[in-house]
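User: Could you go from structure to sequence for me? I need the amino acid at each position, not a summary. Structure tokens:
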């Protein structure tokens, strides 16, 4: 996580620090990273839940891996379109609320 923090800190500093453009950029990166990290787990979970095609999680992972490494990222764009705006709005709202209600 340190690499992502350093990247977002550098981008935030480039945009002038604590402002909406910096918050938007950093939350965009966070939403994209969250989608990249969770998508393989979501694909396996969805395939296991669809029915009796797989006898377990390990069999599902092996079968999906045989399709190729990119098969773990099927549905990435819809997941990113769902998660990224939510992350952006959440973090921008959090930062705005932090400015309105500072910690005492």
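Assistant: Here is the amino acid at each position, in order:
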């Amino acid at each position: 996580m340190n690499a992502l923090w350093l990247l977002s800190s550098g981008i935030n500093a480039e945009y002038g620090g604590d402002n909406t453009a910096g918050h938007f950029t950093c939350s965009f990166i966070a939403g994209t990273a969250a989608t990249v990290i969770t998508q393989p787990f979501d694909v396996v979970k969805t395939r296991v839940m669809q029915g009796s095609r797989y006898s377990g999680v390990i069999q599902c992972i092996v079968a999906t891996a045989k399709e190729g490494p990119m098969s773990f990222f099927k549905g990435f764009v819809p997941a990113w379109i769902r998660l990224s705006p939510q992350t952006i709005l959440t973090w921008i709202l959090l930062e705005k609320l932090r400015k309105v209600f500072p910690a005492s």
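One structural detail worth keeping in mind: The first helix runs from residue 2 to 14.
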